[in-house]
Amino acid sequence: MKLTILGCHSATPRWDANPTSQVLEVKGHLFLIDCAEGTQVQLRRFKVKFSRIKHIFISHLHGDHFFGLVGLISTFRLLGREADMHVYGPKGIKEAILLQLKLGKSYTNYNLYFHELVSDAPQVIFEDDKITVTTIPLSHRIYTNGFFFKEKPGERILDIEKARALNVEMSYYRKIKQGLDAITKDGKKISNKEITFDPPVPKSYAYCSDTEYYPQIVPQIKDATLLYHESTFLHDNQDLAVKTKHSTAKEAAQIAKDANVGTLILGHYSGRYGNYELFKAEAQTIFKTTVLAADGKAFEV
Amino acid sequence: MKLTILGCHSATPRWDANPTSQVLEVKGHLFLIDCAEGTQVQLRRFKVKFSRIKHIFISHLHGDHFFGLVGLISTFRLLGREADMHVYGPKGIKEAILLQLKLGKSYTNYNLYFHELVSDAPQVIFEDDKITVTTIPLSHRIYTNGFFFKEKPGERILDIEKARALNVEMSYYRKIKQGLDAITKDGKKISNKEITFDPPVPKSYAYCSDTEYYPQIVPQIKDATLLYHESTFLHDNQDLAVKTKHSTAKEAAQIAKDANVGTLILGHYSGRYGNYELFKAEAQTIFKTTVLAADGKAFEV
Hints:
The structure is a homodimer.
Chain A: E1 2-7, E2 21-26, E3 29-35, H1 39-45, E4 55-57, H2 63-66, H3 69-78, E5 85-90, H4 93-103, E6 112-117, E7 124-127, E8 131-137, E9 145-151, E10 157-158, H5 160-165, H6 173-177, E11 182-183, E12 189-190, H7 192-195, E13 196-197, E14 204-208, H8 218-221, E15 226-230, H9 238-244, H10 249-259, E16 263-267, H11 277-284, E17 290-292, E18 298-300
Parallel strand pairs in A: 3-4, 4-5, 5-6, 14-15, 15-16, 16-17
Antiparallel strand pairs in A: 1-2, 1-18, 2-3, 7-8, 8-9, 9-14, 10-13, 11-12
Helix pairs in contact in A: 10-11
């Protein structure tokens, strides 16, 4: 699982500070999460093979998470894309994109599917045999969802040496990996645990931006391997966070601690701060394994 | 009159190649012409005092001339803009922008006026005592206008030494500058030409992008000081130019020659060419005073 930050700053794009966009590479997928103005340039800059993106998740329709989407969709057309594209985002996203394509007489020559979200409860919006993506309803000034990417548990790992030594029927191997007990060639039953190892713990990534401090999300993101939580402000600007429905670094850390996540990634910094280390220092008073997002930075777990 | 190129490449934005946008500084105005994705970053990068922009002219609604507009309008809101903003562009531009602001519940706190264009004939869309801006109907795949910025003639310049020597009544000075004849203190009439110089020749700038080769524009842009004419292709790709309704460098030069302009600026290069000097060389076989646009380059006349 590899997360690449394309932009992690709030509000307006600047030369050296891109608003929100990320790509998550997991189980053969390349998921794009949010798409601020300039995202397509960032994808090129960091050499992401972006033709592989087939699913785009948009948290909410503020410009700093969304204004790059129509350009990226158009660029795929110009590049001759043929593969289907699925866009998940709040109701209204389809009309906004299609209106602009219509005005330019620039409809895509590939299939473009919109999955418009309206629910205030978590819902599974993508699933295959290896991963599920679920919305994380957040609390911001407009309708907003985070996204929870969770690997499905893999099969049990067969202790092949032991299976051979115990004369287990090879035709049982598949079922043993699925958790069933084994039968030896001479008919003896062997418990599954005796000849298998636990599969790797499924990894998960919770993306939570933008939101005010919203502890309701904790049960849903419990034990996530990786949590990206917005921290627009430091805690001495908590009044601004409350007013604009954003979070402080301390609040993000409290969520991380309560949810017992592996690592907390902070981002969505307000432009008013020069030194982002202050965010990390503040969060680490509550949650030690906190790291800072930066444009172009990748996290691999 | 100072023209700054923010982007002069066609199609998709890339790290080192921005699609179309320009600022024209003339007679106290800062006009923005077209606004591709990334324009607001380019404005910051080239240190344009962009809060001074009060009029934005959009040629057509293809993304590489238009997708940066909603972001720029939003950024003005975030920066606390109070001054009115006027946007001139094809019908549909208002709906596209307002829909996106509505979805983000991010209406501007300054007055935003849309002047939607539908006419196929040139029309004056802005005028004050020093300048007029007229549309230049172009021929592209969708409804497109260029823009002709023309200074109004200044007052005649009084030869103050001569006026004193001839004992011209001071109270006549204003009218003399406006072209009237003079009267001396002892009642003699002196012809205007005898005591005035011609005012500077009014400067003008014709912006023509995107368009196929379209000689119909020649009478309108006759004797322009500066002409920016798109040249998406070299002439050996004329078939592509015809097909996509763009121009070649040679065709742009022919327009410049027939219109007897001062200087031709080429731009809107297709990404297929590595060496833009080829565009200049091709154009100069027909029109000598041809220069190349480049992102960040400024032209002053």
